[in-house]
Amino acid sequence: MKVQCTDKKTCELLDEGKRLGRIIYEGFFSFKAELFVDQERYVVTPKGFFNTTMSVDFRGREIATMTMSWKGYVVFSLQDGREYRLKPTGPFYNKFVLEDRDERKLLSLDPDFQWSKFNYNFNVLYEEAPEDLLLVLMAVYAAIFFMSGNSGEGY
Fold it and tell me: Which domains are seen in the chain, by residue range?
């Protein structure tokens, strides 16, 4: 599975060439985005003064939040009580691991910076194929958010 960013506003989740989902950002320097999975549309909106929390809405109702923690990772809190963490890893914190509440690794994101397009693609690595594609897209969104914040750029 991989994520291919086709331009500065669109990233597609692909598996063997088949599109499973996509992220479309509102604008070049915006963190407001739409996530699409199986023809369903989810809206991600920054909240708060410092935009450290993102709300994920489905049909006008908040179903999840993504919050930057003081420990350097992003916490995903879903309305059904599930909780996940996206943690940066590697010598330069340039890779990411998605864990559940019990710190069990669900997948990892390995960014691949495309100098010619000046954007990122991601390899999505896992032992068991993830069933929740929205969670995968949220992890990619959070990784881009994390990298953009550390580099001082907006996506």
Answer: 2-151 (2.40.160)
Tell me the C-alpha distance between 144 and 155, whole Å.
7
The HSE-up count of residue 35 (CA atoms within 13 Å, CB side) is: 26
Q: Max Cα separation, the chain?
A: 42
10: Cβ contacts below 8 Å, ≥ 6 apart: 22, 23, 24, 25
Contact by Cβ (8 Å): 140, 119? no
pTM to 2 decimals? 0.91
Q: Which of 4, 32, 35 is nearest to 18 (CA)?
A: 4
pLDDT tens-digit series, residues 20-36:
999 999 987 789 999 99
